[in-house]
Amino acid sequence: MEIELVEIRDFLAQRPPFDALPEEQLNQLPKSLEIRYLRRGSLFPPADTTQGFIYILRSGAIELRDDEDNLVEKLAEGGLYTTDCQLIDFSRASHGLAVEDSLIYQLPCYVLTTLRKTEPAFDRHFAESIRDRLKQAVRTLQDYGEDKNCVAEMTVEVSDLIKKTPVTIDINSTIRQAAELMSDKNVSSVMILKGTKLAGIITDRDLRKRCIAAGVSVDQPVSQIMTTNLETIQEGTMAIQALMTMTRLHVHHLPVKRGDEVVGMLTATDLARHQSTNSAYLASDIRKAATVDDLAHVSERLPDLQFHLANSNASALHIGEAISSITDSLTARLIEMAEAELGPPPVRYVWLCGGSQARGEQTSHSDQDNAMLISDEMKPEHADYFERLANRVSDGLNACGFIYCPGDAMATNPKWRQTLRIWRKYFNAWINKPEPMALMLSSIFFDLRPIYGEVELFKELQSDILSKTRGNGIFTAYMAANALHHRPPLGFFRTFVLIHDGKHDDTFDIKHRGIVPITDIARVFALDQGLTPVNTTERLEAAAETTVLSRDMGENLVDALEFIASIRIYHQAEQIRKGLKPDNYLSPEELSDLERRHLKDAFRVIQEMQDAMENRYQGGRFV
């Protein structure tokens, strides 16, 4: 190797990220470099370059400045400038100037890209920088909020509300022993364990109604009066979600878990002590509603709730979960009203929501996507009952501002009101022969969540679906190709690609060009790996624990989703403030320079992942 090349190699070998390269790569690197000399006062990057480079400052000094000529960064010996190369640009600098005579090395972008793909340690330097800076962008955006009390009360987690250690008793204990334990611990409930597993609970209400009033001896085992088939929540669940779950189930106690371990009991009293008037009034009014008109009046306050949450430092994730939880409760109350009018269902069924509501990513008054899964015990004479039930619930949702699905993906459509056997047949056809219609329906029916009824029916269907999608190369190939249809609105020169159709001139659709691409990517990973989460963030986090998605890219996608969704939430909040109907059409002029820059960065994260899916997917499998 020539002396000059050896000197360059030795220089790079002492500086990150090149010090992470193996010796063979390091020896080859100087041959790919170009050397440039910049006199003091020269523009940086050099204006005569015809391709993108990563620049390494060998000697001298370069100042980087923003659009208002404020100093952003000063490069010294060994400094890197990667804006032209890196797929994601977080720099606020728009131009630079050599303030001393400077010697720079230029490394073509394609060399950087190749090294990032083949050398994980080298790539980690850039991935960590991306992750940290995008997280900071999200924090900065959330700091714009003013109503801090609203988010503190609405998005507090259950783990912050349960202060006592769980009070438990063995399933072989007597009712008397359980009552004595509750009295000693001054609690209103006790959890019943069979070994280390939660078997049921007994509340003070159970003691009164199922024991004393029913004449059951206190010397009988607790299993005689305990409540089984419990609904539980995880300790990271938002308080508002827990409140809506209690409202939907008409219960006052919810066991709290950390994974499979029971860590406490959440009571209605705990929530009442900490919840805001917004959520408490909404939950109370939903519970007390006697007519559809009553629920419609409650639903009218959803835009205000979204506005107040957006005006706080609530994350887009929390806002989506809060709105979706309230929609769940509205739906459940409508079903209860319908059942009260029609009588009890003739066979078991479960009401399912789809789309953004199922993912917990809803904004106020989206259109409705729902379905009904009915037990195979259903007979022809039962069809009329479920048709009338579906019509009442769907009409009620429409009255509450959740308009009918334009594509008719609702339980009112007989096609989406079927038995378990038929639903299995549907999914088998979609998975084995993923035609365009199946792919179009994937955003709804591969994102389903039970709202009301026999949840076990849904679990049986979900298990069957995931067993067929897991590792199914052909199906995943079609899903991956479908996920590439929605591209971020970025042009070749990092400019926004805007709509020019007369109605939404000079805007872009932030939902379909920003949020939907990430949602589609997460769905592909979840189905390919057989993952049960439906929420996009949870899917990405779960996928990052597998081989299909790196943890770095998983975190980058989560942060990109949070930033894009936050921009959308704030855009809609401003429309609500002005008395306008919220939409997804965003003009770049609405954004600050910082927001535009970071939004482009987030879009580039999506582009990088879409490019990776396109490049890595071969022969029906990710490699």
UniProtKB/TrEMBL annotation:
Residue span, Cyclic nucleotide-binding domain: 17-107
Keywords: CBS domain
Annotated CBS domain residues: 162-218, 226-284
InterPro entries: CBS_dom (IPR000644), CBS_dom_sf (IPR046342), cNMP-bd_dom (IPR000595), cNMP-bd_dom_sf (IPR018490), Diverse_CBS-Domain (IPR051257), DUF294_put_nucleoTrafse_sb-bd (IPR018821), GlnD_Uridyltrans_N (IPR005105), RmlC-like_jellyroll (IPR014710)
Signal peptide coordinates: none
GO molecular function, one term: [protein-PII] uridylyltransferase activity
Origin: domain of life: Bacteria
Gene3D superfamilies: CBS-domain, Jelly Rolls
Name of the featured protein: DUF294 nucleotidyltransferase-like domain-containing protein
Lineage: Bacteria, Pseudomonadati, Pseudomonadota, Gammaproteobacteria, Chromatiales
